[in-house]
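User: Can you fold this complex?
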Amino acid sequence: MSAETLLRIEDLRTYFHSQSKQAFVRSVDGVSLRIAKGETLGVVGESGSGKSITALSVMGLVSGGPGVIGGEIDFTSNGTPKNLLQDLDSFVTVAMQDNRIMSVRKDVVRWEQRCEDLMKGIRGKEIAMIFQNPKSSLNPFETVGAQITEAILLHTEIKKEREAKERAIQWLNRVKIDTPRLRFDNHPYGLSGGMCQRAMIAMALACEPNLLIADEPTTGLDATIQSKIVDLLAELKFELGTTTMLISHDISIISRLSDSVAVMYGGTVVEYGPSRDVLAVGDRAKHPYTAALLASIPSRENLSEKGYLHAIEGDVLDTINIPLGCRFFARCNRVTDAIREKCERHEPDLREIATGHTARCWLYFE
Amino acid sequence: MSKTILEVIDLKKHFTHRKGLFSSFREKQQSIPAVDGTSFYLKENETVGLVGESGCGKTTIGRTILRLEKPTSGTIIFDGKDITAVPTEELRTLRGQMQMIFQDLDAALNPKMRIRAILREAIRVHHDLSDAETDKRIAELLEQVNLKKSKLSNFPHELSGGEKRRVGIARVLSVGAKLIVADEPTSALDVSIQAQVVNLLRDLQKQLGLSYLFISHDLRVVELISHKVAVMYLGKIVEIGLAGRIANKASHPYTHILWSSLVEKQSIESSEKAKSVHAGRWGVFDFERPVAGCRFAPRCPVYESKGKPSVCTNPATEPQLVSIGTSHRVACHFPL
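Assistant: Here's the predicted assembly.
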């Protein structure tokens, strides 16, 4: 991976305060990622692992307090890196005690103004996002065509309405909506879920973004439609070479489309590396969580002799009470006596276990 | 040979639009054939998987079998007894033997009741037990579904998805049901939790001799948990057979498309055949303008490649399920 870095996230922290539990939900807790130009990064993890919140933090769309409280998001636009969280520190004061966050004070109003300044010209134009539920993220009162045209007028150099409309129809055609000229005048409710998702993809790509964030683009669609959307994304990736951050809990989609993969668990990245290494089948060195996740996919190969699936015992980590040691310790089946104490007490760093392949596990470094 | 616990013969469920003020001006009442003549049977200790795209009538079949919907026509035979027209008063005793695991976790559990109260209510409705006996039964149930006792005093919103699913299963078991209609029990769960639930359902079947009608659109799960799989398309079963055969040697073009659309299979094989079938046309069936003859014809690649034979679109020759092997039936004029 020698290509130029487009997006670099360093130690990102996004917390929410739970009123009822009087505690912080540490949704994103020290995420570091890097996306090189032209590559597709797959982010995989179970619900609550912080995938979507990471994406929303990059877009500056986190609502609710305190939100983003620390870290760096460096985005390269026009060759110069720009920190999208610049001066965040001066808006936030964090009181720590025994390695636990006791209180966070954040000047939300002023930070939001600052954030808007920083995101101007970036959100939608440089970084576009496809959301999970296409029907609810399109405006129900406007035709699909009008929404795409609006995005084009706003974010590209095309300023004439007629040209923008032509461009919108071209894009609808490109994402394989048949009879695009007729569909242009349809409202979202007149389109099926798959078509809405295609329209969303058209809208996101029509602004020719440098980075596309696709948050669970196929969830909630039927299997046949799902595979068609994946086909489309694969085709567009090949044609346009748009740098993509693909978020999904479906490993099969991630493995099909991604060049590199980050596996998230409990608000952090536990493994990161080239897709073929991280998601390799077999005994290649990998984080116990990734291995367990791969083994729990329902398929004939993963079935035990008695016909059972390899489930991961226990529940997804609740990000309020994060343990001192490794976050996966309670569910891990590869803890040995030699490292048990370390696993329980100390959280491992994300360290290199092979070239370009990092993991957060004591198994791999003594 | 184990006995047949459920038999469904030519079941139909048509929904009609609610009558409105101006409905008399309409030329004719529109009806939507959600389930349009399906027949299958389920043996004791067996799992039949029901797959198909959303809107094909999977859930409606499940609900009609439990008499949560009134069938339009057809016969449902449960445990040797015709239950199609059982009066409403007798339904309660009937539902002691057949139960449903509902798809929507949050809608299925009363948000204002603690887990203990939810389970207790289910037991009380069907059995006449004292407090102590009820509590003992609840403890048994918790053990069966592998749920911590401490969760009893929680409200549903305090539980995780997997735990809620376990409570739902415990409630179904509490009644002592023999037949369970499981409507998408693993959707909305994470992979690791999904595997736990699948294992649990399998365990319970072994221990208690349950029969499942397993409704899901997750083909991989269905393939693994079911003995037989029925593939539905727009209210009709188009193919039914043993799970392994359906997954690997499908005869109906639609079944083939479904299974080849599994993303991971594509990435591995991407066979030419899958691709050619895949080129199938777009679109979802419009119930209001039904296609004559085979319902799948407009999307069917075989129909296209055979030069659109009229036998496929002739209403007089709509394909019927015919046996093509050991308990393998398919409704297609040109099976693959």
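Residues 267-285 of chain B have pLDDT under 50 and may be disordered. Residues 191-208 of chain B form the longest helix (18 residues).
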